[in-house]
Amino acid sequence: MINADEIAGILKQQIASFTSEVQEDQVGTVIEVGANLARVYGLNAARASELVEFPNGLQGVVLNLEEDNVGVVIMGPDADIKEGDKVRRTGRIASVPVGEAMLGRVVNALGQPIDDKGPIAATKFRTVENVAPTVVQRQPVKQPLQTGIRVIDALIPIGKGQRELIIGDRSTGKSAIALDAIINQKGKNVFCIYVAIGQKNSTVAAIAQTLEQRGAMQYTTIVAVGPSEAAALKWIAPFAGCAMGEELMYAGKDVLIIYDDLTKHAQSYREMSLLLRRPPGREAYPGDVFFLHSRLLERAAKLSDEMGGGSLTALPIIETQAGDFSAYIPTNVISITDGQIYLTPELFFQGIRPAVDIGLSVSRVGGSAQTKAMKSVAGQLKLELAQYRDLAAFAKLASDLDKATQNQLLRGEKLTELLKQGQYQPQLNEDQVTLLYAATKGYALAISTDRLQEWAKAFLAFVHRKYPQATESIAQSGQLSDETKNLLDQAAQEFNKSF
User: Fold this and answer.
1) Is the peptide bond before 286 cis (omega within 30 degrees of 0)?
2) What count of other Cβ atoms lies within 10 Å of the Cβ of residue 444?
3) How far apart are CA 145 and CA 192, in angstroms?
4) How many angstroms separate the CA atoms of 94 and 239, rounded?
5) Residues 124 and 98 sit within 8 Å (Cβ to Cβ)
6) How much is the CA Rg of the chain, to the nearest whole Å?
7) Residue 169 has what pLDDT?
8) Shortest CA distance to 175 belongs to which of 152, 155, 148, 195?
């Protein structure tokens, strides 16, 4: 039997508990579209950097807020978007997935995987634009970040939390230094992010393969945007990579991030700005191009112990035209960073690789980011190379040189030869100290220059075999004690007799 009272009771209960939900979507209309940009009318409440959605599922980022319309950069091809299309606000600020799930993957500027390894199980998102840590939240840069490259670790040391610019013409080995630095972080508990802006897809594939072969991909994320992709994606890529690094930094971890390269980044921003009709300035770049790079690089920091002590070390790369580093973008980035590694084609073609010009390169953090052992050998090395550079210029003109000058030139030539290093051959700190100690003490002077690399390799093997306590002591204490020096002197004398 159906009980009418019972039914009435249920209906009354449901009516009493009924709540209507109204979902309000603000929708605008495309009034102009082209070159990956759209002007949208009717999104009056949109916020800067907010994500909006087009009918075909593509997303855009609000960049210009004008009186009667907003300028939106489209994150992808704009072929399917036409005038009159409806654009919906999402209410979300541009963000990317972050966390350790991103490691070992190749992703695009929006954090979506492009390496055919399936979806990424990231649970957290982070906005791409974030405020840099304040002065109070930081501490001085004082821990070394080893690159494994002798000339850099000895003469232009990089510390955790530093921003060191790598600058030079095309094909002088800028990316090679960055890759060696990533490979050298193996087993050192440093996570790496490589942002490839406008690099050929074949180049990015080769980089990923190289890192995979050397076991470095497991702690690395590659953020890649191809040259044919929208300018908006090239513009957002470094910020996305930085957000992924920040997530790890605030979790108390050490991160190394490489922006390869910021010249293409500035060009893509210039393209977007001119199309949005922002007034052009020097070299047609918009007035805020300095702010674009400073707010990105200022996010690299060594956090204070209260904040967890994590660090984000940035190695931005800038490509110069015919060695002109007084151009607009190079001078901007030089003034933001804590030093630069300057590479020259002249050295590169002379066979001095890495082609680091020691006279023009500098690290403004300097010796505070070096172990005591490295500091003790680097001082002497710097002095000798500086004297050699001065004399080498005169030596070309003078025919007869006195004995002291000849000796100085010979020492400089041997040290320059020993600072050469092959790609993908990063060296442990204790091995670098051992080699540079022997070289500055003059044990390499009797060896002919063309056999020096062979001598270096054999000498290190000899020390590891017969005097392992010397390198172990340097590795453990980070210092070069008198006892260790005696052992190394003994080893060098003994080895030179048989070489």
Assistant:
1) no
2) 23
3) 12
4) 10
5) yes
6) 28
7) 97
8) 195
CA distance 463 to 438: 11
CA-closest candidate to residue 261, choices 190, 184, 183, 170: 170
Tell me, yes or no, if 214 is annotated catalytic: no
d(CA 91, CA 26): 9
Triad 194, 200, 206: Cα angle to 5°: 65
Residues 28, 48: Cα–Cα separation, whole Å: 15
Cα–Cα distance for residue pair 39/49, rounded to 1 Å: 15
pTM above 0.85, yes or no: yes
Q: How far apart are CA 319 and CA 89, in angstroms?
A: 38
Q: Is 348 helix (H, G, I), strand (E, B) or coil?
A: helix
Residue 434 CA to residue 465 CA, distance in Å, equals: 14
The answer to whether the Cα torsion of 66, 72, 73, 78 is positive or negative is negative
Report the 10 Å Cβ neighbour count for 121: 9
Q: Please give the pLDDT value at position 393.
A: 78
Cα distance between residue 158 and residue 141, in whole Å: 9
Among left, alpha and beta (phi > 0; psi -120 to 50; other), residue 124 is beta
Starting at the earlier edge strand, list the strands of the sheet with 362-363.
Answer: 106-107, 220-225, 190-197, 254-260, 311-319, 165-168, 339-343, 362-363
Please answer whether residues 259 and 316 qualify as being in contact, where contact means their C-beta atoms are separated by less than 8 angstroms.
yes
Residue 401, CA distances (Å) to 65, 392, 411, 415, 470 in order: 70, 11, 15, 20, 39
Assign 23 to helix, strand or coil: coil
**Cα–Cα distance for residue pair 155/70, rounded to 1 Å:** 50
Give the pLDDT of residue 394: 79
Q: Measured in whole angstroms, how far is the alpha carbon of residue 197 from the centre of its chain?
A: 11
Helices marked H in 356-398: 372-395
Catalytic: which of 47, 364, 389, 411?
364
Query: What whole-number distance in Å separates Cα of residue 456 and Cα of residue 435?
Result: 7
In whole angstroms, give the CA distance from residue 378 to residue 156.
Answer: 10
At 132 the three-state DSSP class reads: coil
Other Cβ atoms within 10 Å of 276 Cβ, number:
17
Mean pLDDT by 10 residues, the chain (499 residues): 82 84 80 94 93 94 94 93 95 95 96 95 95 97 96 96 97 96 96 97 97 97 96 96 98 97 97 94 96 97 97 98 95 97 96 94 89 93 90 77 88 95 95 96 93 96 95 94 95 94
Q: What are the angstrom distances between the C-alpha of 493 and each of 15, 441, 469? A: 97, 11, 17
Q: State which amino acid sits at residue 124.
A: K
**8 Å CB contact between 344 and 322:** no
Task: Please tell me the total number of residues recorded for the chain in this structure.
Answer: 499
CA distance 224 to 208: 11
